[in-house]
Structures are given as structure tokens and as C-alpha cells.
Design brief:
Radius of gyration: 20 Å
Largest sheet: 7 strands, mixed
Order of helices and strands: HHHEEHEHEHHHHEHEHHEHEHHEE
Number of strands: 10
Structural class: alpha/beta
Bound molecules: ligand V47, iron/sulfur cluster
Length: about 400
């Protein structure tokens, strides 16, 4: 059951939100109808105020971030033609296709020794030549060379793909990957679980129920994971809430999700963006803020809601800290997936820029590790600053 939270009712102007506010004040769980009503409401201030109150009750003014490095080892993907929202994947012989050798992965990871990096976030395509041995060798070598760095790797879709290639069960695959060094799993590959939406944007991808089943298996083995939702394409409000309900149900069952991250769809260089005539556009700030706020309100059993500044800009990410978010995707090195899809943000953010963003929102930055343990709190704010630097692409941490 969620905790009862006091609200400033004066901030809520839409009468349709009043019964929802009553539930939050009583500590009652929101229904799917409530979730849809939240998305349908134009009262962004009211929705945000409720999410902010719930978030502050859980986390006070603290905003977490972790220094991480993204590694995308292969963009070769068997679903290249059917995930029509993806700009990153290539067929094996297509221009721009790549698969890193172990040496290339280690070379890319090498910056972890001279930066604050404490987490490698490793995801890529469904490459027929990247089976279990490719990843176990990679994880063993990364652990040998960077023993202090946590490995968050492989979406549920990639795990199921490796299991298929190597003719193993998902459970056996997870156990073998864990033995090689996998610590936790990221939340990608979820997109939107609705069968109708999946048939349109990700036909042939692991079904929603199967995505949930892989995470259930991981949680039962003690492997924690994240969860996501890709919003802003063809999905309806009902689809979004059905998706969040499936995540909430699994969390009730296992408690294995660490964080929820809504992912804003980027329409450049992919077939879906072209079909929808959306190239060069982005999701609206209104929808970006609604998605984090409703994630916070509906997913009452997931502690952390994370904003991904690469996708929504550092400026929306900063504002989202007052709309229910308590966690920021940290300093990152060389992200590729959204930059192929038209994200114009930098590919890395310095520690100083992250601190300024968080402090600029009058919040307290807290560095965490990959399992959300606090590493250091950046107390005090010498100069609360309304001027936020645009992050530079040049340096990480
Ligand atoms: O599953 C692909 C998305 C996801 C596009 O767990 C796109 O901490 C927008 O899940 N526009 C992978 N999104 C990334 C991911 C993630 C990111 C940050 C943190 C964590 C975490 C997980 O990227 C894919 C898909 O949903 N994606 N193409 C696109 N054109
Ligand atoms: Fe492949 Fe993932 Fe892109 Fe789909 S979203 S084509 S599975 S890399």
C-alpha cells in the first residue's frame, strides 16, 4: 500500500483530479481509470504537484545520480526491419554495421579507469554472432580489468535472444551471465506491452508477457533490474496505463525493479518517424513531464523514477525533479542509440554540469552506486544557480 501523503489542494485545478487527490491523501492505490484520467487531464500543475508531494515524502530533496558509461557492442540486429522506431540497428552487410571485438570493448571501457565511472550499461542489437560466449567472455574481461565497475547489461529481449541462439532456458542463460559478471539488467526492450502497439512498432519482438517473464526469472535469481516505457508514438493513454499496470503487478510479486524510466520516442532516421511525418520533431515538454509524474503516482511500489536527460534534454530533466523524479541518468560516455534517432543532446555530461543541474533545481545531489546505495552527498549549495550550462560532448566526469 502506498503511504498517505498530504497535498496542497490549491494547486489542483482540474475537478477530475479531485478523487485521485483523495486517494493519494488516504494512501490508496490508483486504479487504471485514475491513471488514464491523469494522462487525459490538462492540469499539468495539479498532476505535477501530486507527484512532487509523493516523491518528497519518499526522498525529500535528494536527487540521485550515478556515474555510468554506455557501451553498445553491436548494432547488428535480426529485428532491423521490424522494429520500425529504431535508428540504431543494421543488417550484417549494411553500411555502418559493427560488432566490437573484445579488444574494442576493453578500449572503449578504458576511460573508466580515469573517470568516476562505476557502472557499465551494455546493450546492443540481436546479433546472431553474439551469443552467450561473446558476452560471458566480455563480462569476465571487464570484471578482470575494472573490478570496481558494476555491469548492468542486456535487455530482456537480448537475454531471450541469447537463450535461443545457445538453446538454453532463460534461467540457465541468466545464471551463466551472472557467473561471468552480470550484476543487474537495464529496463530496455519493453517499449509498450500492448499487442496492438507492438504489432505496429515492434512486430516480432519478444511479447510483453515474455518481457515480464524474463524479468520475473531474473528477480527470482536475485538479479535486480529496471523497467521502461517508450512513449510518444502510436500508443494511447489506455496502452500506457496497461503497460504500467503490468510493471506494477510484477513489482508486487517480486520487488525486483530498482527504477522506472520513461523513454521519449525520437523520430529521426527511422521508418516510424517517416510514416508518422514526425522527423525533426520531439515529444512535448508537457508529455515528458506528465510521463514522469504519472510514473511516480501509478507505480507506487517502485522507489525510483529516473529521467534520461539525453532523451528529453537536460532542461526538461531538471524541471522533472519537481514532477516526481528523484534519479538522473548520470554522467555517460558515448551513448549511440538516441543520437542515431535524432537526439541533439551531448553524448556525455560532466560531473560539474550534473551538480549544477540538480542544484539549479534547489535540490541536493547525491551520488549513488548501481544498487542505489549512497556514495556521497554534495551538501549545501554555495550558489543556487538559475543558469544551467549546456553539457559539452567532450568530457565525462
Ligand atoms: O528499448 C530505441 C529505446 C531503449 C529509440 O535501465 C528509442 O537504466 C527513443 O532502455 N527513440 C534502450 N528511444 C535504452 C534503455 C535505457 C536507457 C537508459 C537507462 C536505462 C536503464 C535503460 O531505447 C530501447 C528502446 O525503448 N529506443 N530507439 C528511439 N528512436
Ligand atoms: Fe534491434 Fe533493439 Fe533496434 Fe529492435 S530496438 S531493431 S531489437 S536494436
Amino acid at each position: 500500500m502506498p503511504a498517505a501523503v498530504a497535498l496542497d489542494r490549491g494547486l489542483i485545478s482540474d475537478p477530475a483530479l479531485r478523487p485521485i487527490a483523495d486517494k493519494i491523501e488516504r494512501g490508496d492505490r490508483l486504479s487504471t481509470d485514475d491513471g488514464v484520467a491523469l494522462f487525459a487531464s490538462p492540469d499539468i500543475v495539479g498532476v505535477g504537484a501530486m507527484a512532487n508531494a509523493v516523491n518528497r515524502a519518499k526522498h525529500g530533496d535528494h536527487v540521485l545520480f550515478a556515474a555510468n558509461q554506455h557501451i553498445n557492442p553491436t548494432n547488428i540486429c535480426t529485428l532491423r526491419k521490424t522494429c520500425v522506431f529504431c535508428s540504431y540497428a543494421r543488417l550484417p552487410k549494411e553500411d555502418g554495421a559493427y560488432r566490437y571485438t573484445l579488444e574494442q570493448v576493453l578500449e572503449e571501457a578504458a576511460t573508466a579507469n580515469s573517470t568516476l565511472t562505476r557502472e557499465f550499461h551494455i546493450v546492443g542489437g540481436l546479433d546472431m554472432k553474439a551469443g552467450l560466449a561473446y558476452y560471458t567472455e566480455m563480462f569476465r574481461a571487464l570484471k578482470a580489468n575494472f573490478p570496481h565497475v558494476h555491469i548492468k547489461a542486456l535487455t530482456a529481449v537480448e537475454i531471450a535472444h541469447i537463450a535461443r541462439i545457445d538453446k538454453m532456458s532463460v534461467r540457465e542463460t541468466l545464471i551463466a551471465l551472472r557467473e561471468a559478471g552480470l550484476d543487474t539488467m537495464p529496463g530496455g526492450g519493453a517499449e509498450v506491452f500492448s499487442a496492438g502497439v507492438r504489432a505496429t512498432i515492434a512486430d516480432k519482438k519478444l511479447a510483453g508477457e515474455q518481457w515480464i517473464a524474463v524479468h520475473r526469472e531474473a528477480h527470482q535469481l536475485g538479479i535486480r533490474s529496471n523497467c521502461t516505457m517508450l512513449y510518444g508514438h502510436v500508443e494511447t493513454y489506455t496502452d500506457r496505463i496497461a503497460h504500467l499496470s503490468m510493471l506494477r503487478d510484477l513489482q508486487d510479486e517480486t520487488g525486483g525493479f530498482l527504477a522506472y524510466i520513461p523513454l521519449a520516442y525520437h523520430p529521426d532516421n527511422n521508418e516510424l518517424g517517416h510514416t508518422l511525418h514526425r522527423e525533426g520533431t520531439a515529444t512535448s515538454g508537457f508529455d515528458d513531464l506528465k510521463n514522469v509524474a504519472i510514473g511516480r503516482l501509478f507505480l507506487d511500489n517502485i522507489d525510483h523514477v529516473k529521467t534520461h536527460w539525453v532523451m528529453v534534454t537536460p532542461f526538461i530533466s531538471q524541471t522533472s525533479l519537481h514532477f516526481g523524479v528523484n534519479d538522473m541518468e548520470g554522467t555517460m560516455v558515448r551513448e549511440k542509440i538516441y543520437h542515431e534517432a535524432g537526439a541533439h543532446t551531448a553524448q556525455a555530461m560532466t560531473l560539474d554540469a550534473i551538480l549544477r543541474l540538480i542544484r539549479g533545481a534547489r535540490k541536493v545531489p547525491v551520488e549513488r552506486d548501481a544498487l542505489y546505495r549512497v556514495l556521497r552527498t554534495f551538501d549545501g549549495d554555495p550558489s543556487p544557480d538559475s543558469v544551467v550550462p549546456a553539457p559539452t560532448a567532450s568530457a565525462a566526469a
